[in-house]
Amino acid sequence: MNDYLHFTMDDADIGRLSSLALAHVGDCVYELLTRGRLVTGGLTTARNLHSHTVALVRASAQYEAAQKILPMLTEEESDVFRRARNTKVHGVPKAASKAEYAYATALEALFGWLYLKGRYERINALYDVIAQPEA
């Protein structure tokens, strides 16, 4: 039976993916982490879960999340992030600046890259920093 929850790819296959393809996967990974955090954190109504999720996964929030983890990234992770941040996108949502959207795309690409490499502990370590309230 295939494991559809834990996809992994080898380095050559991952290297053939565009930054936007990595961001496509990472968007889902990041939202799943956020939704799980909210559900296990005590939010129970669909309305509360949805509004809090949207607030945490929008480009401006992902920009802030990226700022928290950038100093922690390895050289390889920084390369993935930088490449995705510099990717040309065809549109930016009205609610986000071009810079916020670029960083959000880069954050999602990083999470997608880590997921496809099977680096779940690293995903958790980075997301744990993101989830910490501001001091």
TrEMBL record:
Q: Taxonomic classification, please? A: Bacteria, Bacillati, Bacillota, Clostridia, Eubacteriales
Tell me how this protein assembles. Answer: Homodimer.
Work out whether the entry's keyword set contains Repeat. no
Task: Give the record's GO biological process terms.
Answer: rRNA processing
Record: active site = D27
Domain RNase III residues, every copy: 21-118
What organism does the UniProt record list as the source? Answer: Butyricicoccus pullicaecorum 1.2
Protein family according to the UniProt entry: Belongs to the MrnC RNase family.
- Name-wise, this protein is Mini-ribonuclease 3
* Compartment list: Cytoplasm
Q: Tell me the superkingdom of the source.
A: Bacteria
Which cofactors, if any, are listed as required?
Mg(2+)
